[in-house]
Write a structure and sequence with these properties.
It catalyses: tRNA(Tyr) + L-tyrosine + ATP = L-tyrosyl-tRNA(Tyr) + AMP + diphosphate + H(+). This protein is of the alpha/beta class. It has two domains: 211 residues, HUPs (Rossmann fold), CATH 3.40.50.620; 106 residues, Orthogonal Bundle (Tyrosyl-Transfer RNA Synthetase), CATH 1.10.240.10. The chain has 18 helices and eight strands.
Length: 408
């Protein structure tokens, strides 16, 4: 590739997409009850229909509420509103390293988020970051094993109910896409690297699950430059990733300043579910006691939740309550407690605020909450168990993944 072609590839980024000009401001005082009802209506069962049908009936504000609900943080809300107003099908980027068995934070939460996005008219590009997993030494850097893990993860999302109909969700393997369009990709990566000092890149190492203090390989230092380039390579309007990926998404917005690109990728950073044990800020695949895996048996789920940290009358940093708030309630639109009349009788919660108030007051005890949580999680996971027992391809993939040694 000559210098002229490389320059054109970079300069193309400075041309604004056709989606946006003048930002449309959004009200900061939307009615909480209306917002909750609009979002709660998008249970996984409800969103299994063709998203284009429901999208045509939605107002701009309804679309905004649904998309915005995914993010614990949004950078920036006015840009998001403007995008949804101007572009019929915004492109959302999500990505993952195939690095081992899948836990419910990655499996159920991602399915919920993707279904919300497609129901609001978005197209979701899920980046299967096989090369990135190799750079990060996952599965010992064995690309063939990494590919098997990636296929296994896709089978889980199919089984749990991610809406893959109608082409609104696209799985893209990084190795194949980069190789097929290398003349576009590598000039981008090189330009990102050229415009950033090493300390700035090192601050992004959190995106790999590593800190600046870790002994990093040269490949791992190169990783943030590649992930930043991915956003532009995939022509993403929205970066929909966890809060742990925030730094590299901000790097992408800063890169836009460097190249004088007007329209920056919007960042929607979703909440990070904690591990089941006290003090575990993030669910970890490397610690079985902290994670509920997507194909865990019913007895395994029951035992893990039974042993989970869940202090009476304490709402903050209580993992059991977080799973109810971010998984069970969005999935079922309710959380049902079954107990004897002497202990308060059955009760169904329609929102988290009411549940949290009862728990904090002592009206709801962990001994009643935990069995109800186990029952709800098991109901969500049962189709996944069935799929991996009855589908031979899925069964073989799981067997192979379980045989792999997980490396960090």
């Amino acid at each position: 590739m000559d210098n002229k072609e490389a320059s054109e590839a970079i300069n193309a980024l400075s041309s604004p997409p056709s989606s946006a000009d003048t930002p449309i401001s959004t009200s900061q005082n939307m009615d909480n009850q209306e917002t909750s009802e609009a979002i709660d209506a998008l249970s996984l069962a409800a969103s299994s229909s063709n998203p284009s049908i429901s999208t045509s009936q939605m107002s701009l504000e309804e679309k905004f509420k649904i998309v915005r609900s995914i993010g614990e943080e949004c950078i920036q809300e006015d840009e998001l509103m403007n995008l949804l107003a101007k572009k019929p099908q915004p492109v959302c980027y999500d990505g993952f390293e195939p690095s081992g068995r899948m836990h419910i934070a990655q499996g159920v939460l991602k399915a919920l988020n993707v279904n919300k996005l497609t129901s609001a008219g978005c197209k979701v590009k899920i980046w299967i970051a096989d090369w990135f997993a190799q750079l990060n030494n996952k599965m010992g850097g064995d690309l063939k094993k990494i590919e098997v893990v990636g296929q296994y993860l896709i089978e889980i999302w199919k089984a749990v109910g991610m809406n893959l109909e109608g082409g609104h969700v696209e799985f893209l393997w990084s190795s194949k896409e980069i190789n097929s369009r290398a003349h576009e990709y590598w000039p981008l990566v090189m330009d990102v690297a050229r415009r950033n000092k090493l300390p700035r890149i090192l601050r992004c190492c959190q995106i790999m699950g590593r800190s600046e203090q870790d002994e990093l390989t040269a490949a791992q230092i190169f990783y943030p430059c590649m992930q930043c380039a991915d956003i532009f390579f995939l022509k993403a309007d929205i970066c929909q990733l966890g809060m742990d990926q925030r730094k590299v998404n901000v790097l992408a917005r800063e890169y836009c300043d460097d190249i004088r690109r007007k329209n920056k990728p919007i960042i929607l950073s979703h909440h990070m579910l904690p591990g089941l044990q006290e003090g575990q800020e993030k669910m970890s695949k490397s610690d079985p006691s902290s994670s509920i895996y997507m194909e865990d048996e019913e007895a395994d789920v029951n035992l893990k939740i039974k042993k989970a940290f869940c202090p009476p009358k304490v709402v903050e940093k209580n993992p059991c309550l977080e799973y109810i708030k971010y998984i069970v309630l969005p999935w079922f639109n309710e959380f049902k407690i079954e107990r004897s009349a002497e202990n308060g009788a059955d009760k169904t919660y329609k929102n988290f605020e009411e549940l949290a108030a009862d728990y904090e007051s002592g009206n709801l005890h962990p001994a009643d909450l935990k069995p109800a949580l186990s029952k709800a999680i098991n109901k969500i996971l049962q189709p996944v168990r069935d799929h991996f027992k009855n589908d031979q391809k899925a069964k073989d993939l799981m067997k192979r993944v379980k045989s792999f040694k997980v490396t960090r």
